[in-house]
């Protein structure tokens, strides 16, 4: 199954919690705290692999999660960090953020990697919280939750040349003749429902990759027919070969077809329409009187396009067409990307605890405080230790939680709920 677009959810590993422990050795009466750090959570890395040709596996597995870091333990032992998760995608995969639509990265080279979500930091153990006045801290720092994001993968075939044209003009036949590809061929519309790739090895020239793009029709840029699903696959091509049915066997006018397809390209992407394009007048073996054929060729050349008379069935004109294609590819060289984006900076995920990173609402008779910050805070608190509870209260005050509660007219003895913790409020 050829799948060229998929939406997946990525969850990096969370950092392990710092350990709470104390040295207990026979001849060390004042051992003190020795809880180690939590391990860092695993990150998720996307890697381009030219052994893959489709995004089909992401249709069946949408959520991917990296390993969490392990908690710190006694003896100042740090927890093991979670393993990074490497997700392989086909070469030519464009990665977008679902929420913003922004292009994150373009994995266009084999082995190229991009760290898409970062694992959370591990928390510090209680050995880090000992002071001259607090020599036996019974609390440690909680680990940071790993990043989570939903992304869209779009596969854009890496072809040097794209074959475009209306359905049933002979694109699949031409591809089967000049390459070893075996596309489905039949005398009805839309026999090609997936893009086909083939490698052209012509004489002693360097080989090039050609893609047969499923037939376009009017309105393709708006989603009519199959066009909008596959136009993206011509975005990376350096050269377009526009096939026309010169015989008119489908009851259409070749020059009219040519103008309609170019209109669709222009509407889809103006840069794409500016790609170098040559025209192949196909199915000439079906024409008995070829005098009008040269009139059509002249009209196309007047519009600024090189036109070649060919028959994919008999091989007529293929030598001239391919020789010119190879020459143009060498002249064109590298092309400007169709899509514009500024790659994200790869940064370590270090969330800041900003003021009012929380909400307060009244549910039944309780004041419910919510925010990602509190999960880590609660994991850092030992509610059986007075020092640790004092630390918890100071943080709530510093972050403005108490102030916000008072704005909502909280009274003594009212219930406050934070995550799974409930307590009675006293000013």
UniProtKB/TrEMBL annotation:
InterPro entries in the cross-refs: G_OBG, GTP-bd, GTP-bd_Obg/CgtA, GTP-bd_prot_GTP1/OBG_C_sf, GTP1-OBG_CS, GTP1_OBG_dom, GTP1_OBG_dom_sf, OBG_GTPase
Top EC class of this enzyme: hydrolase
OCT domain span: 350-427
Entry-linked CDD domains: Obg
The protein's required cofactors: Mg(2+)
Domain OBG-type G, chain residue ranges per copy: 159-330
HAMAP family to which the protein is assigned, alphabetical: GTPase_Obg
Name used for this protein in its record: GTPase Obg
Organism annotation: Acetobacterium tundrae
């Amino acid at each position: 199954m050829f799948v060229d677009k998929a939406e997946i959810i990525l969850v990096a590993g969370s950092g392990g919690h710092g350990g709470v422990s104390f040295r207990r050795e026979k001849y060390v009466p004042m051992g003190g705290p020795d809880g180690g750090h939590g391990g860092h959570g695993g990150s998720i890395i996307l890697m381009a692999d030219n052994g893959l040709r489709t995004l089909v596996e992401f249709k069946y597995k949408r959520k991917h999660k990296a390993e969490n870091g392990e908690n710190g333990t006694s003896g100042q032992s740090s927890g093991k960090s979670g393993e990074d998760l490497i997700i392989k995608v086909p070469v030519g995969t464009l990665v977008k953020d679902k929420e913003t639509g922004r292009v994150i990265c373009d994995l266009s080279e084999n082995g190229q990697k991009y760290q898409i979500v970062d694992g959370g930091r591990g928390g510090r153990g209680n050995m880090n919280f000992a002071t001259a006045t607090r020599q036996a801290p019974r609390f440690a720092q909680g680990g940071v939750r790993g990043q989570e994001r939903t992304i869209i993968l779009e596969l854009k075939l890496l072809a040097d040349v794209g074959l475009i044209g209306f359905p049933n003009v002979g694109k699949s036949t031409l591809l089967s003749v000049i390459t070893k590809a075996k596309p489905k061929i039949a005398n009805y519309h839309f026999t090609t429902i997936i893009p086909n790739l083939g490698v052209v090895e012509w004489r002693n020239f360097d080989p090039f990759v050609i893609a047969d793009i499923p037939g376009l029709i009017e309105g393709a840029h708006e989603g009519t027919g199959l066009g909008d699903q596959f136009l993206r696959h011509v975005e990376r091509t350096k050269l377009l070969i526009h096939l026309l049915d010169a015989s008119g066997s489908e009851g259409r006018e070749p020059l009219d077809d040519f103008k309609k397809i170019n209109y669709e390209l222009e509407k889809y992407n103006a840069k794409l329409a500016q790609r170098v394009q040559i025209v192949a007048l196909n199915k000439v073996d079906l024409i008995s009187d070829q005098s009008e054929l040269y009139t059509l060729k002249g009209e196309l050349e007047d519009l600024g396009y090189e036109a070649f008379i060919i028959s994919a069935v008999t091989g007529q004109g293929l030598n001239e067409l391919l020789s010119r294609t190879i020459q143009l590819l060498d002249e064109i060289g590298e092309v400007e990307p169709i899509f514009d984006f500024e790659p994200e900076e790869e940064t370590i995920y270090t969330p800041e605890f900003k003021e009012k990173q929380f909400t307060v609402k009244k549910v039944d008779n309780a004041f419910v405080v919510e925010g990602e910050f509190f999960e880590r805070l609660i994991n850092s608190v030992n509610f059986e230790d007075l020092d640790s509870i004092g630390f918890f209260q100071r943080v709530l005050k510093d972050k403005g939680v108490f102030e916000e509660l008072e704005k909502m007219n909280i009274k003594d003895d009212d219930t406050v709920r934070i995550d799974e913790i409930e307590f009675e409020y006293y000013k």
